[in-house]
Amino acid sequence: MLCVSYYYALHTEIMSIIILSIAILIISAVFHEYAHGWVAHKLGDDTAKNAGRLTLNPLNHLDPVGSIILPLLLIFSGVNFIIGWAKPVPYNPYNLRDSKYGDLKVAIGGPAANLIIALIFGIMARLTPVAVGLKQMLVVGFLRGDNDYLLAQMQGSLVTSVFVLAVIFCFLNLLLMIFNLVPIPPLDGSKVLMTFLPYNWQIKMRGLEPYGFFIIIFLLMFGFFSLIWPLLMFLFSLIVGVF
User: Torsion-angle region of residue 156: left (phi > 0), alpha (psi -120 to 50) or beta?
Assistant: First the structure.
């Protein structure tokens, strides 16, 4: 699974909100990968289980380079996004009981897990007893990267802290869900799309996988987020009830 998140430039130190966001990305990535393995297991393939990947222990899923080194380098380099990945969960498609749609179901498992997390925390944010006006200001502060404002509002207020935490969980999991459904190998969306393509087109798409990371970086550098942003904000507003 590929994890991508925007963040805003730091001044003299890494702010608490940034650290919290990275922690949430890691937690969400673990659930995403676990869900892939869980679906494969339910469909009859124990490859992930035998490899010790059918677990929520983050140490079993995190990639030293993609989960730790690269995100930290990007943070300190001053770019306006974080990109990283967890170790893909292995599975054997020939073991799946559903030979036609098994790959699709396994691929959907990860984004579905992110959607469930987004719904849980989005509803939590919606039901948190914080004034509507303050909720809107907190969401705007988060989207603008105004960490000083968020931390000031959270100081001494458990309810506000819960709301901000729920907002970050909801937003980042929706972002992960949408991004991973983009049909570019090795993202989950490519496996979904390949299920419905003729075999020769499937071969061509698999041939793009070695170049997928570079394609993704290119798209990020040239405004890819502007394409998915309207859908992301629509879903976020619909669930959280802000805006």
Answer: left
Q: Which of 7, 33, 163, 224 is catalytic?
A: 33
d(CA 201, CA 192): 13
For residues 161 and 140, give the distance between their C-alpha atoms in angstroms, rounded to a whole number. Answer: 15
Lowest mean pLDDT segment, chosen from 59-68, 72-81, 115-124, 194-203:
72-81
Q: Give, in order, the Cα–Cα distances in Å from 164 to each of 118, 155, 173, 229, 236.
A: 13, 12, 14, 20, 14
Q: In terms of C-beta density within 10 A (0-12 exposed, 13-18 middle, 19 or more buried), how is residue 78 classed?
A: exposed
Q: Which residues pair with 6 in a beta bridge?
A: 81
Q: What's the pLDDT band for 13 if we cut at 50, 70, 90?
A: very low
pLDDT at residue 83 in the model: 67
Q: Do residues 24 and 12 touch, judged by C-beta distance below 8 A?
A: no
> Of 209, 19, 182, which Cα lies nearest the Cα of 110?
182
- Each domain of the chain, given as residue ranges in start order, spans 2-240
For residue 6, pLDDT over 70 is answered with no
Q: Is the pLDDT of residue 9 over 50?
A: no
Q: Is 33 tagged catalytic?
A: yes
d(CA 215, CA 78): 21
Please report the pLDDT score of residue 81 as a whole number. 60
Residue with tokens 């502060």: 141
Q: Cis bond leading into 186, ω under 30°?
A: yes
Asked whether 191 and 104 are in contact (CB, 8 A), the reply is yes
Rounded Cα–Cα distance for residues 239 and 171 (Å): 10
